[in-house]
Design goal:
- The chain is an alpha+beta fold and 240 residues long.
- It folds into two domains: 3-22 and 155-233, YwmB-like (Dihydrodipicolinate Reductase, domain 2, 2-Layer Sandwich), CATH 3.30.360.40; 52-152, TBP-like, CATH 3.30.2030.10.
- Helix content is 32%, strand content 35%.
- The strands form two sheets. Strands 2-3-4-5-1-6-12-11-8-7 form a ten-stranded antiparallel beta sheet, with helices on both faces. The protein has a two-stranded antiparallel ribbon with strand order 9-10.
- The protein is globular, with a radius of gyration of 18 Å.
């Protein structure tokens, strides 16, 4: 496992602590995704996927009660089978156009049997995602969660330029538009990862030496001359 992946998994390990300690309004959480979208488009980035991820630890109800509640609330969703081998007690999915939603009730062996409700949304069309954020996110969110756990937002796509050209151009312009302060960077052959802090984004993640709330991963496209990107706030939660 290379250094960049090590850093990625360390940050993912912080996700549980961060989610449990931060609540916010779901309607406010669409703005970071839209800010990422608009800023990347302004530097000619082609966005191929939009994603939201969050989870809530079950403390107010038993897992079986949560499953029954979700089955009742998520009318029109496709209910899947439980998979005890993977600690999945419930799963439901709904697809509308390119917008795909998924809900799971999952127990964690590493957390002493703690149970979480996981929720994710992905889309491959900007207008469909914008419509979902404006019309469906808040009511769906309230049907799934008791509180309002932090939403992690990510976009992925491609720049036409080579990695060596993206760093001083598109990336530099993005950091400037966010008024972001660079915190950590990893540069390997054909790969660059950056963590930064910007007051333009709502939430932040406290690390031992600093706070961060936006992360950028850039990788040379092995099939062509372009550069693949993944950008997330407050950190990237999808593989890059």
């Amino acid at each position: 496992m290379n250094l960049a992946k090590n850093i990625h998994y360390i940050l993912l390990g912080c996700l549980m602590i961060f989610v449990l300690g931060n609540n916010t309004n779901a309607s406010d959480e669409s703005s970071p995704l839209l800010l990422l979208t608009d800023s990347v488009k302004s530097v000619d980035g082609l966005i191929e996927e939009w994603a939201l991820h969050t989870r809530e630890r079950l403390t107010e109800e038993k897992p079986d009660d949560a499953v029954r509640r979700l089955q009742t609330n998520l009318t029109g969703w496709k209910i899947g089978s439980a998979n005890r081998d993977e600690n999945v007690q419930f799963t439901a999915a709904r697809t509308k156009g390119t917008v795909h939603q998924k809900v799971q009730v999952v127990s964690s062996d590493t957390d002493g049997g703690v149970v979480y409700v996981l929720y994710s949304v992905t889309a491959a069309d900007e207008e469909e995602m914008r419509t979902f954020l404006a019309q469906e996110l808040k009511p769906t969110y309230s049907q799934i969660f008791h509180s309002t756990p932090q939403i992690f937002t990510c976009i992925k796509g491609k720049f036409d330029d080579k990695l060596e050209e993206v760093l001083p151009n598109q990336l530099s312009k993005l950091l400037s538009s966010w008024e972001a302060e660079k915190k950590e960077a990893v540069f390997e052959k054909n790969f660059y990862s950056l963590s930064a802090y910007s007051t333009h984004f709502i939430s932040s993640l406290s690390l031992p030496d600093h706070e961060m709330n936006v992360q950028v991963g850039l990788r040379k496209d092995q099939r062509g001359e372009g550069t693949n990107f993944v950008i997330g706030t407050p950190l990237i939660t999808i593989e890059y």
